[in-house]
């Protein structure tokens, strides 16, 4: 085979690959409506109704994929229990229903969801960032013994208007640290 024939064959392979990619895009864009979305998410835990997910993703301008749906549902499920979850915990919990998912995909999905304001990425809670889908204003209590993070209601009235004249406050992050209700009795037994 001459060099010219080899180059021509490479170009033909590239063209076939591009054609297949375009065909997949066309087929993917034909999937609209509720039926397509239900087929996409049939193997994903169903704690958040698919109709609600469609609305949330559409309003955020996101394409619905199995991975994004599973990641968002898992974070929402934990938020409903007033709990928080790491990317590694999300990965471990959805791996069974989506065996092809990678930890990198989970991180990318969480980053995208956080960027669109669907989840909050919280730092300073230990070695790993945690994610929270509870978007209403609340503060956090962190147990210094077991690392548990619990939501506590935000009480804005306890802060005086110290920022007056400094600028506009967009967000207040408050973190209480101490022993949680579960660890407190254990601490008292050792004293």
* Silhouette: globular
Characterize the biggest β-sheet.
Answer: 3 strands, mixed
Helix and strand element order: HHHHHHEEEEEH
Give the termini distance in whole angstroms.
83 Å
Can you characterise this structure?
This protein has 191 residues and is mainly α. The protein is built from 7 helices and 5 strands. It has helices at 3-30, 33-40, 50-60, 66-80, 87-94, 103-115, 184-190, and strands spanning 120-122, 130-132, 138-143, 149-153, 175-178. The strands form 2 sheets. The protein has a 3-stranded mixed sheet, with no helix packed on it. Strand 1 (120-122) and strand 2 form a beta hairpin. Helix 4 packs across helix 5, helix 4 (66-80) crosses helix 6 (103-115) and helix 5 (87-94) crosses helix 6. The protein is globular, with a radius of gyration of 23 Å. The termini are far apart. The model is unreliable at 21-46 (pLDDT under 50).
């Amino acid at each position: 085979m001459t060099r010219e024939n080899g180059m021509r064959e490479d170009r033909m392979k590239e063209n076939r690959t591009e054609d297949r990619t375009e065909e997949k895009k066309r087929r993917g864009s034909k999937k609209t409506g509720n039926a397509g979305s239900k087929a996409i998410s049939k193997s994903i835990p169903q704690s958040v109704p698919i109709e609600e997910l469609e609305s949330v993703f559409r309003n955020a301008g996101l394409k619905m994929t199995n991975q994004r749906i599973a990641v968002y549902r898992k974070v929402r499920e934990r938020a409903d229990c007033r709990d928080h979850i790491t990317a590694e915990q999300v990965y471990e919990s959805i791996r069974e229903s989506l065996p092809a998912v990678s930890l990198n995909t989970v991180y990318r999905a969480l980053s995208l969801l956080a960027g669109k304001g669907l989840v909050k990425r919280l730092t300073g809670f230990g070695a790993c960032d945690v994610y929270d889908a509870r978007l209403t204003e609340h503060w956090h209590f962190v147990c210094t013994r077991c690392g548990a993070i619990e939501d506590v209601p935000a009480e804005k009235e306890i802060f005086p208007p110290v920022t007056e004249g400094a600028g506009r406050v967009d967000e207040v992050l408050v973190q209480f640290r101490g022993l949680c209700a579960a660890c407190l009795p254990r601490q008292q037994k050792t004293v």
